[in-house]
Structure formats: C-alpha cells, structure tokens
C-alpha cells in the first residue's frame, strides 16, 4: 500500500522501479538524450540530477555513491569526465524535457529527455537572438543620426534665408540714401538762385537811377 508515499511508483515494485531508473540513467549519460514517457522522464530527472551534482566534486566517496545507483563503470567514467566538463558551471537544471505527442496504442504522453549542455542546435539558436538585439540598438542610433542630420540641414537653410533677407534690407537702405539726399541738395540750390535774383534787382535799380 502507498501509505502517504507521494512519488510515482510507475506501476512497478520498488526493486523493479530502481533497476529501470538505473538503466535509463545509464542510457541518458551514454547517448545524452532518450525518448520515453512523460511520467518516466519526470522520475528519471529526480534520479539523475542529484548524481550530476555529486559528480562536481570528484572523490572516492562520491564515485562509490554514484556507482551504487548506476551499477556501471563506463557510466561512472562518463559522469565524472565528459558530463561534468560541460555541466560544471551550471548551478542546476541539467536536463530538459521536450514533449513529442501521444503514443499510438495506449495514448501515453511521450517526450524526449536530454542533457541541456549537449544540445548544440539550441545553444546556437540563442546566440543570434542576442546579436539581433544589438543590431536593433545600432539601427536606433542610425535613425537618431539621420534626424540630427536633417535638423542641422534645416538650421542651415534657415540661416541662409535670414542672411538673404538681411542683404535685401541693406540694398533697400542703400537705394534710399540718394532719395534722402535729393531734397537737401535742392534746398542748397534755392539760396543761390535767390541771391542771383537779388543781385539782378540791385543792378536794375542802379540803372534806373
């Protein structure tokens, strides 16, 4: 009877369940990914990940503990060698479960369980995403430079227009100066004409006398 045991028994006795998980863990370490049912994969993840954490510290005691679970020398070499080299810097989450649909016959939910750092395709897909973000920032700076260039061009055009208006105003002032001087010249000529007339009248008076 269960008596409060919350883990999934997988429809097997304790010895059968341990032997099955041990063989599945050995296959996962050897092939880096295996296909199985979702229920078995979830239980396998609980079984393998503590062993990988222990393998980060290579000692005789940890090797003997791992051998008690895996029962295979070749699997121990892979665990403490190739696997730890890739996974050593990761703080946890060494496996990934990808659902693949339902099995024909009993309609059991199937999945693939794999070691995260050995899937090179997904690691390559993560890198271009970061580059795309950087490119977007560069495009944004390019747009800002274009707007700055247009603003500078607008300022230069405004300055040129203001200069042209100033030059036109100066021409008008120059053209107005002779007009303002003309009345003064006429006023200067009038006293001379009046003096000549007075001189002519005096001469006529002398002749009449």
TrEMBL record:
Which UniProt keyword terms apply here?
Answer: Ribonucleoprotein, Ribosomal protein
Compositionally biased tracts (Low complexity): 142-155, 175-188
Q: Where is the composition biased (Basic residues)?
A: 131-141
Q: Which InterPro entries does UniProt cross-reference here?
A: Ribosomal_bL17 (IPR000456), Ribosomal_bL17_CS (IPR047859), Ribosomal_bL17_sf (IPR036373)
One function term, GO molecular function aspect: structural constituent of ribosome
Whether Membrane counts among this entry's keywords is no
Question: Gene3D superfamilies, alphabetically?
Answer: Ribosomal protein L17
Among Pfam families, the record links this protein to: Ribosomal_L17
Q: Which domain of life is it from?
A: Bacteria
Q: Which GO terms describe its biological process?
A: translation
Transmembrane parts of this sequence: none
Q: Basic and acidic residues composition bias: which ranges? A: 156-169, 189-209
UniProt region (Disordered), positions on chain: 128-209
PROSITE patterns (alphabetical): RIBOSOMAL_L17
Task: List cellular component terms (GO).
Answer: cytosolic large ribosomal subunit
What's the family? Belongs to the bacterial ribosomal protein bL17 family.
Q: How does it assemble?
A: Part of the 50S ribosomal subunit. Contacts protein L32.
Q: Which NCBIfam families match?
A: L17
Q: What is this protein called?
A: Large ribosomal subunit protein bL17
